[in-house]
Prior knowledge:
Helix content: 25-40%
Shape: elongated
Strand content: 25-35%
Strand order of the largest sheet: 4-3-2-1-5
Number of strands: 5
Largest sheet: 5 strands, antiparallel
Organism: Chrysophaeum taylorii
InterPro entries: LSm4/Sm_D1/D3, LSM_dom_sf, Sm, Sm_dom_euk/arc, SmD3
Distance between the termini: 40 Å
CATH architecture of the largest domain: Roll
Family: Belongs to the snRNP core protein family.
Domain Sm: 11-83
Main location: cytoplasm
Number of helices: 3
Amino acid sequence: MSVTGKRGVGVPVILMHDGEGTIVTVECKNGDMYRGFLDETEDNMNCILKDVTKTSADGKKSQIEHIFIRGSQISFFVFPTMLKKAPMFSRVRTWRKHRGNPPKGEAVKGQAAAIIRKAQARQLQLKSGVMPIR
């Protein structure tokens, strides 16, 4: 799993994958709400729910055994509070802490090196009080 999003997978998608096997609520763009067991998710936010209670936009409730919800139709998810302790959040904190520092013995290359050099030069300018005129 990528925390940095290099493969196009960001934090919300990782959270969805971590939420598999829990009870979630999904609201769709048309106003319908689905509450059920999150069985499977995909990187494009498509998901499969089991044992679902559907609440339509007009307030009618119905039971559904299985449902596939297309990711482009999802407005938002409500996850259980236990996902605050999801391992993904500790990976994000670790990544943010060390993102500018390569592991010992490894040099940063390419675009990452240019970004780091530019940030370091900017910090030196701020410390010295000399700002370039643009």
